[in-house]
Design goal:
seven-stranded antiparallel sheet, 17 helices, 486 residues, alpha+beta, binds magnesium ion, binds adenosine monophosphate, 13 strands
């Protein structure tokens, strides 16, 4: 039945149209595996807007909790666990999907291809002693933050649904109600996927993965003279641009291990991530990141370090001559800082309403950031106030006004540019926690829905959102800590 559906490219009544390009890659890269059924599937939340973008019938899906819990498969699904390695806090390990299964690639009505993955669907051959499961809190957390990132216009994986399992999972915090997240991604190919192929010295797999990644994410580069080199450069640029966008909104990923870096350039793996309140480049929320490796201000350097790991993995297919391969890789990695600086300056200029470029812009931006750090100013509120003409910083303000007056664009144009780049609202940590606690402890999804509504149009400064969503956290909520406690 499923192969007929694919052969004719027709969608099923619910709209499923699953293909399996990734499964065609060499066997080293995946293992066919079935989800483990759960006791009592119950749909907690369904992303109707995303469903419709995917060509899925939201109304029909509402009745299909069993599919979102892994108890039944959508027609045409051929679940598999992906193999990958990764540097975790700098240490190299073999990993793989320990609790996630790729069901297939959904082909949308616009003929776009998206991975459909169940996260928390039971143990796999890569579970390494883990239970293969996930708790409601962290899965709803991924749902709300990834959807907030999407609304902020930042490339990200998305969340289609969260289903409760009716089972409990055992975590450091105790027994927690279990859940499965349905994640949607341009792909789940990671730097760690390339590292896995390289660690096995499997050049056939490495080449096939390179071709596949180009085809899916950089089709304009297909047929390039040196596919691996072209992929490396394009992936590097996309990563640089992604990190600049994180810095734009104060996002701290929290666990930028190479297995959590997607070649598509999407933000992926929402674990201990959080948005910064007071501006401080040293801000780290994750309880396991004791040395601040993944602190807000370190993210660009870490991205470069991760890019170097991708380059390393690609070395054997960059050039037949090892030294020449190293040279090619190094010259690209060295350029990463420039790629990032350019992207960062572009977004930061936009945040200040600047259309033109002047040599002193970097200093102007840095001086505002320094002022924010010294006065412990809230990152989001400061820029929102700037966009609304409500910021008072004396000396800096005068320099900024003079800078604005040297461009030909009108004041109204500058304000519009600022409003498009300075969110009025972000998912505040205390509001996220409040919503997750209500859902997880009291089965009350209302605070989560209210939060999602508040986060849906973050650049609309006229919305008059309830102050609870826009104000900085109460002092007792800082310092805030996040847990990998997935
Ligand atoms: P993460 O920290 O979420 O990026 O996960 C790192 C690795 O741990 C991946 O290989 C995951 O599949 C695996 N993992 C995380 N949680 C579990 C779990 N509960 N059971 C099995 N594997 C897990
Ligand atoms: Mg991960």
């Amino acid at each position: 039945m499923s192969s007929e559906i694919q052969d004719h490219g027709l969608a099923t009544p619910e709209g499923w149209r699953l293909e399996h390009q990734y499964a065609q890659l060499p066997a080293l890269l995946h293992e066919r595996w079935e989800p483990t059924p759960v006791k009592e599937p119950r749909l907690l939340i369904l992303n109707e807007a995303l469903a419709s973008e995917l060509g899925l019938d939201a109304k029909a899906l509402r009745q299909r909790a069993a599919v979102f819990a892994g108890n039944e498969l959508p027609p045409g699904a051929k679940p598999l666990a992906q193999a990958y390695a990764g540097h975790q806090f700098g240490n190299f390990t073999g990993l793989g999907d320990g609790r996630a299964l790729l069901l297939g690639e959904q082909i949308t009505p616009e003929d776009r291809r998206f991975d459909i993955q169940l996260k928390g669907a039971g143990p796999t051959p890569f579970s390494r002693g883990g239970d293969g499961r996930a708790a409601i809190g962290p899965m709803l957390r991924e749902y709300v933050i990834s959807e907030a990132m999407h609304a902020l216009g930042i490339p990200t994986t998305r969340s289609l649904a969260v289903a409760a399992t009716g089972e409990v999972v055992f975590r450091k915090q105790g027994l927690l109600p279990g859940a499965v997240l349905t994640r949607v991604a341009a792909s789940h190919i990671r730097v760690g996927t390339f590292q896995w192929a390289a660690a096995h010295q499997d050049l056939v797999a490495l080449r096939a993965l390179t071709e596949h990644t180009l085809e899916r994410h950089y089709p304009e580069l297909l047929g390039a003279e040196n596919p691996a080199l072209s992929l490396l450069e394009a992936a590097l640029k996309r990563q640089a641009s992604l990190i600049a966008r994180w810095m734009q909104v104060g996002f701290i990923h929290g666990v930028m291990n190479t297995d959590n870096v997607a070649l598509a350039g999407e933000t992926i793996d929402y674990g201990p991530c959080a948005f910064m309140d007071e501006y401080d480049p040293k801000t780290t929320f994750s309880s396991i990141d004791r040395r601040g490796r993944y602190a807000f201000g370190n993210q660009p350097q870490i991205a470069q370090w991760n890019a170097a790991r991708l380059a390393e993995a690609l070395l054997p297919i960059l050039h037949p001559d090892e030294n020449k391969a190293l040279e090619l890789a190094n010259s690209l990695i060295e350029k990463f800082a420039d790629f990032f600086q350019l992207d960062w300056l572009t977004v930061m200029r936009a945040k200040l309403g600047l259309f033109t470029t002047e040599a002193e812009d970097r200093t102007l931006i840095q001086d505002l950031l320094n002022w924010m750090q010294n006065t412990k100013a809230d990152y989001t509120q400061t820029f929102a106030a700037l966009a609304m003409g409500r910021l008072e910083t004396n000396e800096w303000q005068t320099r900024w006004q003079q800078r604005l007056s040297r461009q030909t664009q009108s004041h109204a144009e500058s304000v519009a540019l600022m409003r498009r780049h300075n969110p009025a609202v972000i998912p505040r940590n205390h509001k996220v926690e409040e919503a997750l606690a209500a859902a997880s402890d009291h089965d009350d999804l209302n605070p989560l829905h209210r939060l999602l509504t508040a986060l849906a149009n973050p650049y609309d400064h006229e919305l008059d959102l309830p102050i609870e969503f826009t104000e900085a956290p109460p002092a007792c909520n800082t310092p805030y800590q996040t847990f990998c406690g997935t």
